[in-house]
Amino acid sequence: MARYLEASCRLCRRENERLFFKGIRCSTEKCALERRNYIPREHGQRHSKLSDYGIRLREKQQARRMYGVLERQFRNYYDKAARKRGITGEALLTFLESRLDNMVYRMGFAPSHAAARQLVSHGHLLVNGKKVNIASYQCKPGQVVEVKGKSKKMDFILASVKAAQEQGLPSWISLDAGNLKGTINHLPTREEMNIPIQEQLIVELYSK
To answer: pTM for this structure?
Structure first.
């Protein structure tokens, strides 16, 4: 799968939003937004007014980068959401939140989406007792995600779980920190998704 290999902090600065690519560091004064809160380009400190299209595009890019998915993947999620009954924007976010790499991140097994994706692709996770190494795997209510065998001794997983417990976990997830095991109680409602995204702008962008 294609990966973004440039400085990830540039993406946060471009979207003017903390995307938490570097975990807990993004909540400290070391965050790039604290030091250089402007667009990463030669004349980034000059603020130009965005058009309506530009506003919608930036919202889509922010969501896509937050979950670490490519444009084609993101468009596929939108198409699936548009075919579902209900509110398209909320369905889109539900598909993104249901990804296995996102669940691993929300449960606190990894400090960032990128680290969670790496854990999944390297085979460190089990879903209902079976190894799953596909980051885009769609999780379902009632499923149990746990760290596999020897991987439970990895220092960065233990440190990440401790930090996640201190910050608080989503209400729709139950965590057995001692056994590094999390249960998906239900898929989150829009009110339970604590994410800075205006999904209606994304729907307007794609529905043009």
So the answer is: 0.79
Please give the structure tokens belonging to residue 20: 């938490």
Cβ–Cβ < 8 Å for 32, 40: no
Do residues 40 and 10 touch, judged by C-beta distance below 8 A?
yes
Tell me: pLDDT of 92 over 60: yes
Helices in 50-167 by DSSP H: which ranges? 52-67, 71-83, 88-97, 100-106, 113-121, 155-167
Classified as helix, coil or strand, 162 is helix
- Identify the pLDDT of residue 1: 46
What count of Cα atoms within 13 Å lies in the side-chain half-sphere of residue 127?
21
How far apart, in whole angstroms, are the C-alpha atoms of residue 25 and residue 44? Answer: 23
List, for residues 33-69, the tens digit of each pLDDT value: 555 655 655 554 556 678 899 889 989 998 998 898 9
Q: Per DSSP, what are the bridge partners of residue 131? A: 126
List Cβ neighbours of 7 (8 Å cut-off, separation of 6 or more): none
Query: Which residue in this structure is represented by tokens 């729907």?
Result: 203
